[in-house]
Amino acid sequence: MMLPTHVLAGLAIALPVAAIAPDLAPAAFAGAAAGSVVPDLDIYAGHRRTLHYPVYYPLAATIAAAVTLAVPTPVTVGITFLLAAAALHCRMDELGGSLELRPWAETSDRGVYDHHNGEWRTPRRLICYDGSPGDLAATGVLAIPLLVLTETPVRWLVIAALVVGITYAALRKWLADVVEKVVELVPSVLATYLPGRYRGS
Length: 201
Ligand SMILES: [Zn+2]
Fold this sequence. Notes:
This protein has seven helices and two strands. By secondary structure, the chain is an all-alpha fold.
């Protein structure tokens, strides 16, 4: 799924904190936003592998949650939601499309890498691909409670995610063609630095 969907899903799991412990909500939202983005920082080096840990993030989040229940501070809350959002991100990638330039072609069986078992998890394709109509619908559904229940600056982040998500979904298939043409023009010495999905590997 696309990054705006990850961000909104991460923010959504922090919503209960706003109702239960409003003073800890900023830490929860900040941690969740960061955790939803962090896995995809590996886009230039082993995308969906280097920073994606579908087994270890949930384990670490569970331990952090136990510590947070005992010692609820902004730091423990922030770390817990960072790990929980990163865990959710990896699960969402597995439920989405394959890792390839045109995931709607379904030629790859790589969803997300499972370091614990040393293998790629097969994409479930409940959401066909990142930026698909289903992905955009998920973004819209997640945005509704967040827009209603949050205030600035979280609400601004939700609006920004919506704008980016709508734009990305509208351009998704065209972008694949553009990327392919740009890659053809990039000198081969520089092409090795491009994400693998753009090099056909
Ligand atoms: Zn990802």
